[in-house]
Specification:
Elements (H helix, E strand, L loop, with lengths): L8 H4 L17 H7 L4 H24 L10 H7 L12 E7 L3 H17 L4 E2 L7 E10 L1 H20 L1 H4 L3 E9 L3 E9 L14 H13 L14 E7 L9 H22 L13 E2 L7 E5 L7 E5 L8
Antiparallel strand pairs: 1-3, 1-8, 2-6, 4-5, 4-7, 5-6, 8-9
C-alpha cells in the first residue's frame, strides 16, 4: 500500500464502509456487495444510500459536537493556491486512475450546486468544472513520477484501451444526486441503478458497482497491484474543499452552513430525483461513458490535474 503523507488530508480523514458489508474475505472487494445483495440493483442502490446517509449523519454530528476542533484544512492545496507560503512547492503525490468525466448536463448541475454552496460559504475552494471527475478505479496514489510510469508500462496499452473503452459497451447508470460532506470537502454523490431498457443491456442487473468490479478485474489481470485508498460504496464528484476556518469558526456559523446544505439537498431531491411514478429525471441522470469514455490519468491529479494516458470512446446521450 502506498504511503500516506504526514499532514495530508488522508492522514486525518478516514473513509469507512458504512453499508454493513465486510469486504475482507474477497479477492475482488467489489464482489462482496454484489453477493450480499444477490446481484439485485435495488439492493445495491439501498446499500449505497445507507452508506451516504449514514456518513452524512455521522459527519453532521461531528461538525456540531461541542468538542469540534475545526475543519480539516488541506495543507497541500493551501500551498498550491498560495505560492507565497512555500515558493516552488510541487505536489509530491503522483497517482494513476481511471476517471469517468461528467457529461455537460451533470457539469451544469454541479455548477449550480457550487453556486449555491458559495452563497453559504464564500471561502470554499471550488473544483473547476473542466477538472471534475468520478474515480471509477484508482490503481495507486502518492508515488513518484517514475514509479507511476513503470506501472503504466506494466499495465500496457492493450489493457488500458480495454479499460478506457469498457463503458462504451457496459453502460452504468447513476441517479439521485445529493451533496455529501465531511470536515474536509463536499461532493455531489449519486446512487447506482439498473440500465435503461433503451440501451439494450446484455446484463439488466448491471450497475456502477458492477462496473467498478469489472475494472478491478481487468486491471488485476495485468499483474499490477490495485492499491486504491478506499473501495467504499460511493459514487461522487468532488465539488469543493475547505481552505479556511472563517466561514465555520463558531457553532452558529456551522449550524447555519449545515442547514443550508440540508436545504440544498431538499432542492436536489425535489428537482432531480424521480417521483410520482416517473423512472427518470434526465437532468440528474448520468450514464457513465456519455460524451467520453474513461480517462486513464497519471501524475499530480489530486485536484483534477495530471496527464491523460488514453481517453476512451464515448457515446451520445440516451434520451
Amino acid at each position: 500500500m502506498p504511503p500516506t503523507l504526514p499532514g495530508s488530508v488522508d492522514a486525518s480523514n478516514k473513509f469507512e464502509d458504512l453499508s454493513g458489508v465486510d469486504i475482507t474475505l474477497y479477492k475482488n472487494p467489489y464482489d462482496a456487495l454484489i453477493e450480499a445483495c444477490q446481484n439485485d440493483p435495488s439492493l445495491i442502490q439501498s446499500r449505497y444510500e445507507t452508506h451516504r446517509s449514514t456518513r452524512n449523519g455521522q459527519q453532521k454530528e461531528k461538525l456540531l459536537a461541542p468538542d469540534f476542533s475545526g475543519l480539516i484544512i488541506d495543507p497541500i492545496l493551501q500551498k498550491l493556491q498560495h505560492p507565497s507560503l512555500e515558493p516552488g512547492f510541487q505536489d509530491p503525490r503522483h497517482c494513476l486512475v481511471f476517471w469517468a468525466r461528467p457529461p455537460a448536463h451533470i457539469r451544469e448541475l454541479a455548477r449550480r450546486v457550487q453556486q449555491k454552496l458559495s452563497a453559504i460559504a464564500s471561502n470554499l475552494w471550488l473544483m473547476p468544472l473542466e477538472r471534475m471527475h468520478l474515480t471509477a478505479l484508482e490503481i495507486t496514489h502518492s508515488l513518484t513520477d517514475p514509479e507511476i510510469h513503470s506501472i503504466v508500462d506494466a499495465i500496457g496499452p492493450e489493457a488500458i484501451a480495454a479499460i478506457t473503452d469498457y463503458t462504451y459497451t457496459h453502460r452504468a447508470r447513476l441517479i439521485n444526486p445529493m451533496v455529501s460532506y465531511d470536515g474536509a470537502a463536499l461532493a455531489l454523490s449519486f446512487l447506482p441503478t439498473s440500465p435503461l431498457p433503451s440501451s439494450s443491456p446484455s446484463d439488466p442487473n448491471f450497475t456502477y458497482h458492477h462496473l467498478r468490479r469489472d475494472l478491478y478485474n481487468l486491471a488485476s489481470r495485468t499483474g499490477v497491484s490495485v492499491d486504491s485508498r478506499y473501495v467504499v460504496p460511493s459514487s461522487h464528484i468532488t465539488l469543493a474543499r475547505f481552505l479556511v476556518q472563517d466561514d465555520h469558526d463558531s457553532p452558529e456559523k456551522m449550524k447555519a452552513f449545515l442547514d443550508g446544505v440540508d436545504s440544498l439537498n431538499s432542492w436536489l431531491q425535489e428537482m432531480y430525483w424521480p417521483s410520482d411514478g416517473n423512472d427518470r429525471v434526465p437532468e440528474g441522470d448520468w450514464i457513465v461513458g456519455e460524451e467520453k469514455g474513461l480517462d486513464c490519468r497519471e501524475g499530480q491529479l489530486w485536484y483534477g490535474g495530471g496527464r491523460t494516458v488514453r481517453l476512451g470512446k464515448g457515446f451520445e446521450r440516451e434520451q
